[in-house]
Design brief:
- The complex is a heterodimer of chains A (about 375) and B (about 220).
- With about 375 residues, chain A is mainly beta.
- Chain A has helices at about 1-10, 100-105, 355-365, and strands at about 35, 45-55, 60-65, 75-80, 95, 110-120, 125-130, 140-145, 160, 170, 175-180, 185-190, 195-205, 210-215, 225-230, 235-240, 245-255, 265-270, 275-280, 285-290, 300-305, 310-320, 325-330, 340-345, 350-355.
- Chain A is globular, with a radius of gyration of 19 Å.
- The termini of chain A are far apart.
- In chain A, about 50% of the residues are buried.
- Chain B is about 70% helix and about 0% strand.
- In chain B, helix 1 (about 5-30) packs parallel to helix 4 (about 75-90).
- In chain B, strands 1-2 form a two-stranded antiparallel sheet.
- With about 220 residues, chain B is mostly helical.
- Classes of the chains: A mainly beta (about 375), B mainly alpha (about 220).
- At the A-B interface, helix 1 and strand 14 of A face helix 3, helix 5, helix 6, helix 7 and helix 8 of B.
Chain lengths: ~375, ~220
């Protein structure tokens, strides 16, 4: 009892308190929109699941995975960086391969998958990535590695145990939210018997990283959540949906992620495809999504001014019949610029930069 | 020894014990003329050699860790007890203690796995991260079992100690108490017992209803 009591005390409680973005001082009041390919010289047929973050010095870092096909043994997670004001991304460099993950984790790794990169205020990069030892994506486990030198070198990956059933079926797709005491809330999801969204709470301790998770919705509803903080204890989870309604759904917490509302459908379609959402520094919410119930042939932006209750379509980023534009990932830089990376026809990673005036200009045009 | 290596060693104990048990069964089947400590020494050495054998750059124990790196403490202790039983005849655990161990595995597994995998709105796995009723329930159960003289209570106490020392890769208390293999074995044992008792009660009932002259044939 005494020993158990001590454990109760030692285990502590999970992190809480969402950080919302500070109001940014815009770099320019003139609207601009710029698009480029991050990996134009990729030798591989497939590139997918991009993420992007900003380092304190203004550098951008982007990751994605590429290989001959999704799930192939030659798939690796690539990193490319772009200095502030530079016009070109650095040559992509594989930072996690099947072999390096097997070496780091000291176990068999069949393939690597989704990865999300994020940076803390001290400039340390962290990468949360999927490995599979057995089976398909349902056999996924999450691992964490970090870099203190802007991505040049990485610590050996650390396996996170997040599921009691052989630690299977935990994946990541969207950006973490920083918490007030330096911890992170990472939107993750489970897909084995059923799919459901979760929040992974990461906390740095003297003994290493402490990880725990909580569920966003009951089993069977939604996955690949995008977490958008609304306040210290309030946040929205915007969900990809694999049910017959084929709509984007949202769930809300007002107690720091302890409990969530029952997810409800929005008036926006979702063809069972990944989406990206962030809270802008002015308080509005921005969503990047496939505006269709049947396919991924377009990628649009929508804005909400009422904490996600209603959304207005404001811009089309990509559109081509029969094409595949997918897995958008949004980030707002400290100068207010908005960055969107997404999978372009499964062959390349595109990076789109635009600013708030451009966004507002579109809004004006679309409402006419 | 770094903590990482310690955790990797601990994850290898259960597969090693499982292999020792398989070797002991094989030795009995093949009528190997070794007994007691000598048989234990030989089977342990062979099992260790297999577990530490490198295959494509990884030792076998780490291949097993690719499938499951968190074997629970009760499963490990139960395997050690089974090995002991094989070698020295007579079980260190009484039938009541085995029932407690397997009952814990079955009830715990039914409580944890279906809901943690999404078959319910509550995720009991969350209770293993931090302050929760799980710690209190297990603490009370541990104290009660020890008070009743049931040595499975000491196994639960050992699990709490292993959790405190973080001897497994997991940092969730559930993984120190249960694993899917332990729970499946426990459920299988109870299912087997239920089937046996049902069969025997049916046999008794049918023999009672049969006419005397037929039942004596």
């Amino acid at each position: 009892m005494v020993l158990n009591g001590w454990i109760v005390f030692e285990a502590g409680s999970r992190p809480s308190g969402f950080l919302t973005p500070e109001p940014a001082s815009p770099a320019s009041t003139r609207p601009f929109f710029f698009e480029e390919v991050v990996n134009p010289d990729s030798p591989y047929a497939m590139s997918h699941v991009a993420s992007i973050c900003e380092l304190p010095d203004g550098r951008l870092a982007a990751t994605w995975y590429a290989g001959t096909r999704e799930g192939a043994g030659d798939v690796a997670i690539y990193l490319s960086t772009r200095a502030f004001g530079d016009t070109r991304w650095s040559a992509p460099r594989a930072i996690v391969t099947r072999e390096s993950a097997a070496r780091d984790l000291n176990r068999y790794v069949k393939k690597v998958g989704n990865a999300v990169i994020f940076a803390d205020g001290a400039g340390r990069l962290s990468l949360l990535y999927v490995t599979v030892s057995i089976g398909g994506w349902s056999g996924s486990s999450l691992n964490l590695t970090s870099s203190a030198d802007g991505g040049a070198t990485w610590t050996p990956g650390q396996r996170l145990t997040l599921s009691p059933f052989f630690n299977l079926a935990e994946l990541v797709k969207n950006a973490p939210s920083a918490l007030i005491y330096g911890q992170w809330a990472v939107p993750i999801y489970h897909e084995l018997v059923s799919t459901f969204p979760e929040v992974l709470w990461l906390e740095e301790t003297q003994d290493g990283v402490r990880a725990s998770k909580t569920r966003v919705s009951a089993g069977w509803f939604g996955y690949q959540p995008a977490l958008t903080p609304l306040g210290l204890n309030a946040a929205l989870a915007v969900l990809r949906n694999d049910d017959t309604a084929k709509t984007v759904s949202i769930a809300r917490t007002d107690d720091g992620g302890k409990t969530w509302s029952t997810p409800h459908s929005l008036d926006l379609p979702n063809p069972d495809a990944g989406l990206g959402a962030i809270r802008l520094s002015d308080g509005r919410l921005l969503l990047a999504f496939n505006d269709s119930k049947t396919g991924r042939e377009n990628l649009r932006l929508a804005l909400s001014t009422d904490e996600g209750q209603t959304w207005a379509r404001i811009a089309t980023v990509a559109e081509e019949p029969g094409a595949d534009f997918s897995y958008p990932f949004l980030m707002q830089a400290s100068n207010g610029d908005l960055h969107l990376v997404y999978t372009w026809k499964r062959a390349a990673i595109r990076h789109v930069v635009f600013n708030i005036p451009w966004l507002d200009g579109w809004r004006g045009r679309s409402s006419q | 020894m770094s903590h990482t290596i310690l955790v990797e060693v601990c994850s290898a104990i259960c597969p090693w014990l499982g292999l020792v048990w398989c070797l002991l069964r094989a030795a009995r089947f093949l009528k190997v003329p070794l007994r007691g400590w000598m048989l234990l020494a030989v089977t342990s050495a062979i099992a260790a050699a297999v577990i530490l054998a490198p295959v494509q750059g990884l030792v076998v124990a780490r291949w097993v860790a690719g499938l499951n790196a968190n074997f629970s403490i009760p499963l490990t202790v139960m395997l050690a007890l089974i090995v002991w039983e094989h070698l020295f005849e007579g079980s260190p655990f009484s039938e009541q203690e085995w029932t407690a161990a397997l009952g814990f595995g079955a009830i715990g597994g039914l409580t944890l796995y279906p809901m943690a995998l999404g078959l319910g709105s509550v995720d009991p796995y969350e209770w293993g991260w931090s302050i929760s009723p799980l710690f209190i329930v297990i603490g009370v159960l541990t104290a009660w079992l020890i008070w009743r003289g049931n040595r499975f209570g000491f196994v639960l106490l050992l699990s709490a100690g292993a959790f405190q020392l973080r001897l497994l890769e997991s940092t969730n208390y559930w993984d120190y108490l249960l694993d899917p293999i332990y729970s499946l074995v426990s459920l299988g044992w109870f299912a087997g017992r239920l089937a046996t008792s049902t069969r025997s009660s049916l046999t008794k009932r049918s023999s009672k209803t049969l006419p005397r002259n037929i039942s004596t044939i």
